[in-house]
Design a protein that fits this description.
With about 325 residues, the protein is an alpha/beta fold. It has 14 helices and seven strands. The chain folds into two domains: about 210 residues, Rossmann fold; about 50 residues, no CATH class. It has a seven-stranded parallel sheet, with helices on both faces. It binds guanosine-5'-triphosphate (GTP) and magnesium ion. Guanosine-5'-triphosphate (GTP) binds next to helix 4. Belongs to the SIMIBI class G3E GTPase family. ArgK/MeaB subfamily.
Length: about 325
Amino acid sequence: MHPITKRILAGDVRAAARAITWIEDGFPEKGQVLQEIFPHTGKARLIGLTGSPGAGKSSLVDALITYLRSQQISVGVIAVDPTSPFTGGALLGDRIRMQHHAPDRGVFIRSMGTRGNLGGLSRNTKEAVRVLDAYGCEVIIVETVGVGQSELDIMKIVDTVAVVLNPGSGDTVQAFKAGIMEIADLFVINKADLPGLDKLLTEIEQMIEIVKHDASWQPPLIRTIATDRVGIPDLWQAILAHERFLMESGEGEKRRSYHLHEEVIELVNQNLSRVMLQRMEQGAFADELVEVANRRVDPYHAAEKMVRIFLQR
Ligand SMILES: Nc1nc2c(ncn2[C@@H]2O[C@H](COP(=O)(O)OP(=O)(O)OP(=O)(O)O)[C@@H](O)[C@H]2O)c(=O)[nH]1
Ligand SMILES: [Mg+2]
C-alpha cells in the first residue's frame, strides 16, 4: 500500500491535501492511491450546491459547516470554480469567509480551478471527493458556480443537488435554460431578506411544473438568509429528507451505480484513445490519415476503419 493511502485512511489531513494536489497535477502516483482508497469510499453523504455567482453559496456552506460541527459531524468542502484557472488557496474570498473553521480538524476546505482544462475539472473533483470520503469526512459539500455544462457534469457526482437562487435576480430563467432545474433536488432561496421573494417562489413553482420531476420527489423550496444563519436547520432537514427518499425508493443506489457506470465508460474511452494515440505516434494508421488529408476518404469512414483494425489486432 502507498504510504499516502495509509495516512489518508488514518485520517491524516496533510496526506489528504497532498493527494488532492497530486490529482490536480496529474502526478503518476495518484493512480495507485485512488485505486487503494476506492474500497474505503461510498460512505460520505455528498451534497452539491450550485447557483449563480454571488448567490451566497459560500456563505451557506459556511453556515452549514457551523451547524454540522455543532452536531460533531465532520465536513469536507470542495469549492469548484470552472471560470477560474486558480486552485488551492487562490479563491481568497472563499478562504476568508470560511477561515474561522481552519483550526477545526473536522473541517477540510479546498478550492479547485480549471487549470485551463475544463474537461478535467469534473474528473478531478470526483477524485478529490473520493479522497475526502476515504479520509473520513461524513458530509462532503461540492460548491460550484453556475456556468452550464461543466457545472452539470460536476453535479453528476453528488447524491443531493441544491440549487441556490436569489429574489430579484432573474436566475430562474437562466437556470431553466441551462438545464439546472432538471437536476435540482431542492431549491435554496437565499437572500430571503431581499425584495421579490414571492415572485421568485411563484416562478420556481411554475418552472418545476414545466420540468416535471419524478413524481415521487417534489423538490422543496427552502428559504435562507445565509449571512444571518437563518433557515440552515431547515436546509439540513430537507437534505436529510432527500436522503431518506433516496434510500427508501432505491433511487440513491440507482444514481450511484449509474455514476460509476458512466465513470467506467469514460475511463474505457480514455484508455482506448490513449493506446490508439500511442500506436499512431509509432506510425500506425499513417496511410489512412494521408487518405483523409488528401480528401480521398472522409474522416467518418477513416475513423470507423481505424477502430475496426485496432480492435482486430
Ligand atoms: N442580503 C443577503 N446577502 C447575502 C446573503 N447570503 C450571502 N450574502 C452576500 O452575498 C455576497 C456573495 O456571497 P457568497 O457566499 O460569496 O456567494 P457565492 O455564491 O459563494 O459567490 P461565488 O462563489 O463568487 O459565486 C456576499 O457579500 C454575502 O455577504 C443573504 O442571505 N442575504
Ligand atoms: Mg463562493
